[in-house]
């Protein structure tokens, strides 16, 4: 073992230093702002619809513009950030989404909102690739899962903060101020990032002991696996199918729940806050419990295959009761059913992401996640356009909740048929004979 490894393994955090956790806090803040920015439109949508005069189909197109750009961004962001480095790449991403968030306040038409949402999607797609790369730069392997869990919790925090903060700003200063304020949050984070971020080797506030701790792992092989080779394997298609079939449900929750609660229960802008907070707090709990459940099954002696799919089944069953939400005659019954479904989705998502490390070597996981994220965003585009058309023609949310309630069980069936034993994919390049 090298001296760096020995230092990293034996020294307590108090002696090693804690600066890397400040970097993690920056990532948490960025992810929280990321979700606040994308949630502003969903919270204000029922009231902007009257203000701007769009119909359900046009709102569907606005959401689709974001999803299309997000899909494109997921394909490109990783390569751009790898080429430019984390500091510059992350800065460009948040600069783009900050300007895009602010530009919403100047939009006065459907086309204007579509353009603003498209640029926002391009910028926001860079958040997770940049944050994951930052964690890889600043944390040894044994701490990366925890650090990733911390910054990823910002997605739920943002979904909780937005319905509390945005209505207050909009009522006090108008809806345009809500977009200006959240865009300013992104800009403030950007300034902080540029002033404070350096690589560990170049950071003046990092102690030698903490740097040794961060670099205590053996060098990681830099192996790029082409997508064409990954997509030859049914393990990849299992993950892609799961994301394509279930991610659109989460996008529906983000962008249409405020409209549903307003249309069905007459909630005012300020009245949306508490129900939406309750729903997304349940989602946060579900995210934790879904991951815990699979681990609990494994500790009971279940195989990884049985434990992972057992946890996914439990989460999928939590979503099924949402089929009754569209006809619930009580607001809080609907909130409970939808909250249970969002909890099920987040628990499902935690296990679906873990499928990649169950079936692929570490150096291929990021590529597989990127492909699956693209598939999920494409599915989100399709559901956004379909939802707008359906609500415009029928006004009924029932078919959408029926689709949501069945999507996870169907996705689990597809996953099981493609990978009945979760056997690892063999990605080795073919060798030529002599």
TrEMBL record:
Keywords: Membrane, Transmembrane, Transmembrane helix
Record has Membrane as a keyword: yes
Domain Major facilitator superfamily (MFS) profile: 23-423
SUPFAM superfamilies named among the record's database cross-references: MFS general substrate transporter
Membrane-spanning intervals of the chain: 58-81, 88-116, 173-195, 236-257, 277-298, 310-326, 332-353, 365-391, 397-419
InterPro entries tied to this protein: MFS, MFS_dom, MFS_Na/Anion_cotransporter, MFS_trans_sf
Cellular localization per UniProt: Membrane
Membrane topology of the entry: Multi-pass membrane protein
Pfam family, one: MFS_1
Family listed: Belongs to the major facilitator superfamily. Phthalate permease family.
Protein name, as recorded: MFS transporter
Top-level taxonomy: Bacteria, Pseudomonadati, Pseudomonadota, Gammaproteobacteria, Lysobacterales
